[in-house]
Every structure is written in C-alpha cells, then in structure tokens.
Amino acid sequence: MKVFISFSRADRSFAERLGRDMRALGADVLSDDIWSKPGANWDQGLRDALEASDGVVLIVPAPGAQKANTAFFEAGAARALGKPVVAVLPRSDPSRADEAPSNMYGLAVFDGSSVAPESLANSIVTALKAA
Known about the structure:
The chain has 131 residues and is α/β, with parallel strands linked by helices. It has one domain: Rossmann fold. 39% of the residues lie in helices and 17% in strands. It has helices spanning 12-24, 42-52, 68-80, 117-130, and strands at residues 2-6, 28-30, 55-59, 85-89, 108-111. It has a five-stranded parallel beta sheet with strand order 2-1-3-4-5, with helices on both faces. Strand 3 (55-59), helix 3 (68-80) and strand 4 (85-89) form a beta-alpha-beta unit. The termini are close together. 31% of the residues are buried.
C-alpha cells in the first residue's frame, strides 16, 4: 500500500514519525523529498505522488499554520482523484472541532495525541486498506 502524507511545515516531525511507524507496518510512504528539491516541478511531482498513492493521510494543520492551505489542497486533490483520505489531529484540542473545514466532514478523523504513535499508524493503515 502506497500512502501519501500531507502536512504543514509545523507538523513535519509528527508526519515523519507517523511515516516511520507506517513503514514499519509495511506501508510505502511517499515522501515530498522527491519534488521539493530545487528545480523540481512541484505541481507534477505532487500529482504523480497523489496518483500513485492508494490513500492519503491529512495531518490537520493548526489554523494559521504556514502552508496550511497547501495541506488542505492536497487532501482535496486526492479526494478528486478518488483516493481515500483520513485526517489526523496531531494535538488534542476539542475547541478546534468547529474550525474543521466543511470538506473534512465525512472523513475518518484520528486524534493523534491520545494514542501511542505505533497504534495510530496501525489504525490509519487499517482504515486505508478498508477504504
């Protein structure tokens, strides 16, 4: 299973840990390193990665986070391509529930702050395989 993880810069370390845990479960996690190099065609690299993925994990960025809109755009593009998308809240904050974009409704949402990272990765891989 190939998985694309979409995240804002502020959540990079969380996304990298999740990616390592998902790889340990046998998932092939696609990295942004491929198209983020100087001179790379970002648009085409992103499209290729989304098309190659079997599912997408959206690390829900905090409101106002740098590049937050990019993460939501990537998740929307994945949905438009018919890819299953799951959302992960990296930090628990019940007050943020009302801030979730309307296009997130209908997604499986995981609270990444309340479970062990390995368990979170297992739940996400299981959900994407079932989708």
